[in-house]
From TrEMBL:
Keywords: Signal. PANTHER family: CHITIN DEACETYLASE-LIKE 4, PTHR45985. Residues 1-15 form the signal peptide. This is Lipoprotein. It comes from the Bacteria. Residues 37-46, 418-429 have a biased composition (Low complexity). Residues 26-85, 407-429 are annotated as: Disordered. InterPro entries: CE4, Glyco_hydro/deAcase_b/a-brl. SUPFAM superfamilies: Glycoside hydrolase/deacetylase.
């Protein structure tokens, strides 16, 4: 991924993220190849899937950068749990600023997902579809036109990213947004108004909907989705500015937000959005728990140095993997709260955090009653459930299984299901 800022000059932005308990990708985050043995090293990216429309129907949108091609393939229809049934264990793997760079990590984790019956959420940064020669088209709130803390892209980077977005969606994955310029700390998104957020969201949409015009690649295949309908959720840069973002997101029809920090408990709604926050999980060998994000493990282990002590890097990756697995086990054998994991396509500390995620996907996604899904699929499932049951699930503490057993705990006289939800009980006349 080409960027206009060098990593060495981006530590100010990185440091601003530390106190926020958040993930932050900065600078030329994909300009160098992965370390030997890291996922994506020496691995050829799979050929991008074509974008044929179901039933051979395709309706181009705008300049043809996007298109309506019918219902998304491989998107399961949510079903309401039957009375007395234990809820499945949901796990969401998500990626901030998703773009395909020289390390080929986007294509790598698409392959990992396919191998493990998983789908994921890719939060695209809009500026990754904007060539640096057109940078002035971006008018970031409270910043000068054409500025960005993560740079912009080149033609090859945009082509590669579009290929991955196209294939990812056709495989059932979700394309969300990580907005654009990734401004954190003083003068950043934490100071934005509702109107600022609406402007930023509108621009993120426009860069996706006009990438052909902005790049001149008018003969390329479109993205096979209507982004206005696809975009239903986000994670804010450095987990900042959540209050005003949620107000803007609610007005714009979003359905969830994953910009908060919470314990491993069942989600509820906040400001009309599902609160699918990042979570704190056990951190082996440490007193405090850790946020389920690669960046936070790095800061705890090597500070703001993205490549710390080489003798410790493998151990640090093992710590992250073991932390995620302990968090999974605590939920799987306890309250079954969905596990939310967030990452970046980075080779911090020798690529060992990418290895940790890779190993976690392989370890958990094939277990009985586990569903590795996107945020969209999780929100769809939550919407389909009996509100009384969801409210009951929120009474369970971290790692707490029902004392009377799941069958008794989940038995109730259910409320009528939303119209059309499979498995819903008949409404009495």
């Amino acid at each position: 991924m080409a960027a206009t800022k060098q990593l060495a000059t981006s530590f100010t932005a990185v440091a601003a993220c530390v106190a926020a308990l958040s993930g932050c990708a900065t600078g030329d985050h994909q300009a160098t190849g992965p370390q030997k043995g890291a996922p994506g090293a020496n691995e050829a990216a799979p050929a991008p899937a074509p974008a044929p429309a179901p039933g051979h129907v395709m309706r181009l949108i705008g300049d043809g950068s996007t298109a309506f091609t019918g219902s998304q393939p491989h998107l399961p229809r949510p079903e309401r749990l039957k009375s007395g049934r234990k809820p499945p264990q949901f796990v969401v793997f998500s990626w901030d600023g998703a773009g395909e760079g020289s390390q080929k990590l986007f294509s790598h984790f698409r392959k990992v997902a396919r191998q493990n019956n998983a789908t994921m959420t890719y939060f695209l940064s809009g500026v990754y579809l904007l060539p640096k020669e057109k940078r002035d088209l971006y008018r970031p709130p409270q910043h000068s036109p054409g500025s960005s803390d993560i740079g912009f892209n080149d033609e090859q980077g945009i082509k590669d990213t579009v290929d991955q977005l196209r294939g990812a969606w056709l495989e059932g994955n979700e394309i969300g947004t990580h907005f654009n310029g990734h401004f954190c700390g003083k003068g950043g998104v934490g100071e934005w108004s509702v109107a600022d957020w609406k402007s930023e969201i509108g621009q993120a949409r426009s860069f996706v909907k006009s990438w052909k015009t902005n790049t001149g690649m008018k003969n390329a295949a479109p993205l096979p989705f209507d982004y206005d309908k696809e975009l239903i959720g986000a994670r804010t840069p450095c987990l900042e500015g959540q209050k005003n973002f949620r107000r803007a997101a609610h007005d714009l029809g979003f359905r969830y937000d994953t910009s908060g920090v919470n314990d491993q408990i069942w989600p509820n709604e906040n400001d009309g959005l599902w609160d699918l926050s990042m979570q704190l999980v056990p951190f082996p060998g440490h007193k405090a728990e850790q946020l389920t994000m690669d960046y936070n493990f790095m800061v705890d282990q090597s500070g703001t140095a993205p490549q710390g002590d080489t003798d410790k890097q493998q151990f640090w990756g093992d710590e992250m993997r073991d932390s995620l697995l302990q968090g999974f086990d605590r939920a799987y054998n306890g309250n079954r709260a969905p596990l939310v994991i967030g990452n970046h396509f980075e080779s911090w500390n020798g690529g060992n955090y990418m290895r940790a995620v890779d190993e976690t996907v392989h370890a958990v996604c094939n277990k009985p009653e586990v569903r590795c899904v996107s945020f969209r699929q999780l929100a769809d499932w939550l919407d389909a459930q009996d509100p009384q049951i969801l409210k009951r699930l929120t009474t369970l503490g971290v790692g707490e299984a029902p004392a009377q057993g799941w069958a008794s705990f989940m038995s109730t006289s259910p409320a009528p299901a939303p119209k059309g939800v499979p498995g819903a009980p008949a409404v009495k006349q």
